[in-house]
Amino acid sequence: MSAARDGRALRGAVLAVLGIGVIGPIIAGLALTARAAFGLLPAIGSTEAGLAPWAQLLALPGIATSVKVTLFTGLGSTALSLTLALAIAAGLRDRLARGGAARLLTPLLAVPHAALAIGLAFVLAPSGWIARVLAPLLGLVRPPDIALVGDPWGVALLLGLTIKETPFLLLMILSALTQIPLRQQLAAGQSLGYGRAAVWLKIIVPQLWPLIRLPVMVVLAYGLSTVDMGLILGPSTPPVLAVALTRLFFSPDTAALLPASAGALAQVALVLAAFGLVLATERAIRGLGLAWIRRGGRGRGIALAARIVAAGGRALLALGLLAMLALVVWSLAWRWPWPAALPQSWSLKAWTGAGPGLGRALAASLWLAVATTSLSLALAIAWLEGEDRARLGRAGWAQGLIYLPLLVPQIAFLYGLNVLFLRLGLSGGYAAVIWAQSLFVFPYVMIALSDPWRALDPRLSRAAASLGAGPWRRLFTVKLPVLLMPILTAAAIGVAVSVAQYLPTLFIGAGRIATLTTEAVTLSSASDRRVTGVYASLQAGLPLAGYGAALMIPALVHRNRRGLKGARS
Amino acid sequence: MSLVLDTVALSLGGHALFAPLSLTIAPGEIATVMGPSGVGKSTLLDAIAGHLAPAFTMSGRVTLDGRELRALPAEARRIGLVFQDPVLFPHLSVGDNLAFGLSRRVTGRAARRAAVDAALEQAGLAGFYHRDPASLSGGQRSRAALMRSLLADPSALLLDEPFSKLDTGLRDEIRAFTFAHLRERAIPALMVTHDPADAAAAGGAAISLEVPGRG
Amino acid sequence: MRLSTLAGLFAALIASPTVANDWQDTLDAARGQTVYWNAWGGDARTNAFIAWVGAQTEALYGVSVRQVKLTDTAEAVTRVISEKAAGRDADGSVDMIWINGPNFLAMKEHGLLHGPFVGNLPNARFLDLAPGSANTVDFTVPVDGMECPWRLAKFVFSYDTARVDAPPATMADFVPWAAAHPGRMTHPDPSNFIGATFLKQALVELAPDPAVLLEPATDATFEETTAPLWAWYDALKPNLWRGGAAYPENESVQQQLMNDGEVDIAMYFDPAATAAAITQGLLPETARVFVPEGGTIGNVSFVAIPYNAAHKAGAQVVANFLIDPATQAHMQNIEVLGSFSVLAPDKLDAEARAAFDALPTAPALPRLEDLGPTRLEPHPSWMTRLTDAWSARYTR
With contact defined as beta carbons under 8 Å apart, do B89 and A482 qualify? Predict the structure, then answer.
């Protein structure tokens, strides 16, 4: 049938774009990194293949501790955020509450990792906001000399990652729930005498897991390879692996590029091993869980546990919001020394003194966000519509390809990718940066859009076809308008991801394209919290405006359409 | 001007769903298909309308007014669909839902608006053009959905348990409304139902699908 | 005979090109170019100064400057290396780098620099370029005209007079001071330039024979020379902030720790940094500079041009503008940057000298004579070995 052929062609086109634009460059980038990892980097005169870079990597002081802390923070934060997100989702009674929760989460979704980390460091530090409020009560004259941030085990980093990832996982869970007849199943379970939390654990979570496995993997890969959060909240001697590798990549000693490349490959191996661990855990839990379900315990006791976990989760999210508030307050402060709980003097100098650089960075961020998000949305819609027309379901292998950029640590392929772009003569321009950013924006847009798209009532499209509407008219007059809300939500996520991109913008833009994020990270090396506050507020503000638009536009356009209220992702 | 099924059979993974079916539905006739759950009644409607999932294979011929349908995409078959739930587009007003269905052959803004208004009046929905479909009652929605299908000027109509979700009083009213319009316009219709009362009221051929080999 | 004279003449022509004509060619080629100046972007005042330089060169020579803000100078080095790896030997993305020490050595060794070009700059006549002068060696590595000096740097400490009565008087004195004030002192991580300089400063003072520091380090000299340093550090470390288990990432983070009251001492490679931080509200009004007796390490900040720079002429015009006496006087103004000039006072005319003499002062700005003598930077190999040895000894 021609529609099916159409659909295959559409999907094929997207696949071709992905292959040429995403998979190829990543593999090429990885290949260059791999060559350097085995001693081949002619640019610095290293032409002899061998295992020396690996020996150098292993001889790096504290490398074993680095790996240990990396695993602890990456796995720990992922497990914790998943638990918290599930507990919070289970505690939300109805669709309205879930919509409200999603709205409350948007600031935390919008704020880039680095900005949140800076705010959080100020809130938690021994000389930080909490300590300043407590200082008069405890009679503290000087900040206590305790490692509350940058502690050797990386607990602060673990908390920071958890605060940032819980809202993301929660959003993914709420989105996946639209595909599960939650209310009926809860009612059925409860009518059999199971507690609400027990129904969630025994009935809902097993159905949810396949739908959120991929986002969990993305969170895991991020947690294991974070540079900016690791730098700000993590331990320093030795730091987490990704930070140690970044130091090597940017060491004055150019020969350090070789062990750095070896380390980048080790980072990939670490992420793969963690994925293996997740899948093994999944198997084990499936077996044990089934036995647990068959025992038929009504599990009323876990209700309390679930409530406590959810409360803990809400407390952590509140801490995250406090960190963002701290940044805003700092951006308006002039002097704010220990132990004042509020600034001694206020000033707008941080805002007004930033000069035209701020405006240029804002414009660059905005323009990149619009370009990458439009491109990614177009690709995502083409892919999903192609699936519909070809009547094909989710293809696992295709999903793997789409999400590849999020699953492979950035540091492992960005250096090689940059060399590739340079060879093609593409580096340093907007086109190259749009491309590089889209590698990461597109998968997030897909994650956000595919569940609501697939949950769309297929009868709408059929009814339109039976009324004589062809595939394009069905797409533009029925599907896209009905999906306006999730499409705009996906766009808002795309904007947030684009605005937050640091390494790709820096590497591929040859440092010439200054965005809010590249400026914020550069200025944060100056540790002026007031200036950082300005940039971080804007960094969070731009995507926040995107989320605001995602909520406002459908509310306006569909103000008289009750059937679409709450038909959000 | 009739819908003809000629030894139509459906199979999933090599297993036939029901014995091959042959049936001719005359203009204005309402044929009914009954049978146990899972025998493939809805799948049969999907196949005729052009929405068959790729896992199924179909054999036999379906012709409408002498046109062979199998090669045509759904939107070109001119076959209307009425679902169990009245599937109105939630983003369009009631009137715009009807306008979406109205055949392209009616041209000109004023003429199209007049046609929609006339249909609304026939459905007892006069003055409802700008209403949100979500604000209609169940019966009003069913009538609007049927009117939308009829405005597309279909050559045949398929109804998938169209009245099963309505309460008894409303069911008789909507059934009468639907059948009257079908007969008036001489449209051949095929209805899937569980309700013997539907079949009796339809008065056309009544087919009972059986799982092959089980008699 | 005639041939050798000719050859000699020819060689002389190459060696000292007729500056005026060539410089006019450079100015003509530079007009309309945009120079991408890769410079550490962590200091708002330096960023503002670079923006000012761009506005001036744009007006005077039609050369605009765009600062590519780095978090670490090595980023620019890595960028040039990746361009070389990709075979992009012309039209590179980096036109000029604020550079010195190990980064300069790395680029020079790998042939990644353009030049020599300093001799061609008309304003080079204001520099003391006599062999062995501070402008001709960078961390003991001969500059050979491959980078142009633009600001002086000297290692200094800062402390809050409201909290500290007497700061340590020598590097050796840090040990008893820290023992008396446990947890009130730290230094940036030695992977950072300032953190490494803190160790070097101690090494210069504690080394049995400081002369060996000017030669490349060998296993033997390194072991012997650093032995007192490690003994000193082992005694210091337990009383550092966080018991020496964590270190601030760079000097700005340490400054923030001092402002937050977590530590009492900060350190910089810029004598004006304390005064500048006070005017920016980043340090209390009571902060002051101190230097250990015997003086501190000093060096010169340079700008260099990569071999594949797209806008070499423009970069030279900017470099020349940087060492213009008026530019240097503007830069030395504490209200602008406060960095000491690299020009030789005896080469300036009376008017230029008067401009320097008229510069304003600030309470926290030390006078040049308060800073003591300048100790020479050790050879770069010492810094590399020192940071490696430090992390091998103290990273677990």
Answer: yes
- Distance in angstroms between the alpha carbons of the first and the last residue of chain C: 70
Q: Are residues C268 and C381 in the same domain?
A: yes
- pLDDT value of position C15: 42
Residues of chain A with pLDDT under 50: 1, 566-569
State pLDDT tens for residues A473-530: 999 999 999 898 889 888 988 998 999 888 888 878 877 888 888 887 777 666 678 8
Residues 6+ apart with CB under 8 A from A356: none
Residue A93, classified by CB atoms within 10 Å of its CB into exposed (0-12), middle (13-18) or buried (19+), is: exposed
Tell me: do C346 and C387 sit in the same domain: no
Range of the domain at B127: 91-153
Chains near A with 3+ CB pairs less than 8 A apart are: B, C
- Chain C nearest-CA distance from A13, in A, is 30
B213 — pLDDT class (breaks 50, 70, 90): low
Residue C205 lies in a domain: yes
Domains in chain A with CATH codes: 64-323 (1.10.3720.10)
Structure tokens belonging to residue C257 = 């720790």
A347 touches chain C (CB under 8 A): yes
Residues 70-89, chain B, touching A (beta carbon < 8 A) = 71, 73-76, 78-81, 83, 85, 87-89
pLDDT tens-digit series, residues B47-67: 998 888 888 889 999 999 888
Give the mean pLDDT of chain C: 89
Q: What count of other Cβ atoms lies within 10 Å of the Cβ of residue B121? A: 13
Same domain, B107 and B73: no
N- to C-terminal Cα distance for chain A?
32
Whole-prediction pTM value?
0.82
Nearest alpha-carbon partner for C311 in C62, C101, C39: C62
Is B109 within 8 Å of chain A by CB?
A: no
Is residue A183 exposed (0-12), middle (13-18) or buried (19+ Cβ within 10 Å)? exposed
B137 and B50 within one domain: no
Kindly tell me if the per-residue pLDDT of B215 is higher than 60: no
Residue-level pLDDT at C268: 93
Same-domain check for residues B71 and B141: no
What six digits make up the tokens of B95?
């009137």
Q: Are B158 and B190 in contact (CB under 8 A)?
A: yes
Q: What is the pLDDT of residue C203?
A: 95
C278: left (phi over 0), alpha (psi -120 to 50) or beta: alpha
In which domain, by residue range, is C35 found?
16-150+300-362
List the chains bordering chain B where 3 or more Cβ pairs fall under 8 Å.
A
Beta strand pairing status for B206-208 and B56-64?
A: unpaired
Same domain, residue pair C130 and C244: no
Query: Rounded to whole angstroms, how far apart are CA atoms C268 and B164?
Result: 82
DSSP, residue by residue, B111-141:
HHHHHHHHHHHHTT-TT-TT--GGGS-HHHH
DSSP alpha helices (H): ranges in chain C?
Answer: 2-15, 19-30, 44-61, 74-85, 102-109, 174-180, 193-206, 219-236, 251-259, 273-279, 312-322, 325-332, 350-357, 380-394
- Chain A residue with the nearest C-alpha to that of C281: A335
Backbone angles phi, psi at C116, to 5 degrees: -70, 140
Q: Which two tokens stand for residue B133?
A: 């479909």
* Residue predicted with more confidence, B127 or A193: B127
Q: Verify that C89 and C179 share a domain, yes or no.
A: no
Chain B nearest-CA residue for A471? B75
In a domain, B85, yes or no: no
Express each pLDDT in B141-176 by its tens digit: 988 998 999 898 899 999 998 888 888 888 888 899
Number of domains in chain C: 2
Among A2, A459, A467, the strongest candidate for a mutation testing the B interface, having the largest count of B CBs within 10 A, is: A467
Q: What is the pLDDT of residues A73-106, one digit of tens each?
A: 999 999 999 999 999 888 886 666 666 777 777 7
Q: Are residues B167 and B119 in the same domain?
A: no
